[in-house]
Amino acid sequence: MANTSDITRGMILKLDGSLYTVVEFGENKTARAAAKVWAKLKGLDNSRSIEKTWNSGDNIHPVRVERKSYQFLYKDETGYSFMDSETFEQISVLETMVDAPKFLSDGQEVSVLINTETELPMSVELPDKVVSKVTYSEPGLRGDTATRTLKAATVETGATVMVPLFVNEGDLIRVHTKTGEYIERVKE
Fold it and tell me: Is the pLDDT of residue 145 over 70?
C-alpha cells in the first residue's frame, strides 16, 4: 500500500471508483496542524478535473499502468483502431480516450496506457509535437512579417491551426498536440 509521500506527477490513482492522473501536487505545512498533501487530478475515465487533499501519511491507491507503442490504423463507427507494434494485436477505443484526435494521421505511432489490473486501454497519447502538411491556407502578403499576425490554416488531418502569414499551402509545419499551436515550419 502506498501513502501520500509516494505521490508523483503522472501517477494514476483510484478515487471513488474512478481513475485520475496527478497533474500537480504539493504539501502545506502549518505550525499548529499536521501537514496536508494536495493534488490537482484529471479524470481518465471521465473528463473531470478535481483537487483532493489528504493528511500527510494517508493511504492512497495507485494503479499500475503500462505504456505500449501502438500504430493508428483507421477510424470508423466503433471508434479509433490501433495496432500493437510488437504483437500486431488490434484494439478499438472511443474518441474521448484519445487526447488529440484531430491530429491523428494514418500510420502514426502513439502511446496507449493500459491498466495492468484489467488489461484494458485507459487513454491514447499522441507525441507532444507532430509534423503535418498544410492543405489549405489563404496566401500571405509579402513583407508582412513584422507583426505576430496569424491566419487560419487547415492541415492534412482536417484540423485548423493558427499560423504566421508566411506559411503557405503545401508547407510542412510542426504543431504542439496538447495546445494545437503552431511551433515552426519544417524543411523537407
Answer: no
Strand positions, DSSP E, the chain? 2-3, 12-15, 18-28, 36-43, 49-55, 59-60, 65-76, 79-84, 90-93, 109-115, 120-125, 129-137, 150-155, 160-164, 172-176, 181-186
- Give me the architecture of the 65-125 domain, per CATH: Beta Barrel (2.40)
| In the chain, ranges of CATH 2.30.30.30 domains | 2-60
What average pLDDT does range 61-84 have in this prediction? 91
What kind of architecture, by CATH, is found in domain 129-186?
Answer: Beta Barrel (2.40)
Does residue 166 surpass a pLDDT of 90?
no
What's the whole-number average pLDDT of the chain?
87
Mean pLDDT highest for which of 23-37, 69-83, 138-152? Answer: 69-83
Q: Using the 8-state DSSP alphabet, how is residue 100 labeled?
A: -
